[in-house]
Write a structure and sequence with these properties.
single chain, 72 residues, alpha+beta, YaeB-like fold, four-stranded antiparallel β-sheet, 1 helix
């Protein structure tokens, strides 16, 4: 089961390589002013930023957790 979840998350991160702006802005991190975006992958949010031509994944967050734990 863990392999299936991991593979799906990796596939969704690979998708971001061709569609970097495909994720929505993450409103819970707007206060940081860094343009964090999210891509939902099953029960997980892939939190990332676009800097120049690079995609930085900063977190993979289980959406079943308290969203307050995501706010840095």
């Amino acid at each position: 089961m863990a392999d299936k979840i991991t593979n799906r998350i990796v596939d969704d991160i690979d998708w971001l390589l061709d569609h970097p702006r495909g994720g929505q802005y993450e409103p819970l991190l707007e206060h940081l002013g860094l343009g964090h975006r999210r891509k939902v992958s099953g029960n997980y949010k892939i939190i990332y930023r676009i800097v120049d031509d690079l995609i930085f994944v900063s977190d993979v967050f289980d959406t079943r957790q308290d969203p307050g734990r995501m706010v840095w």
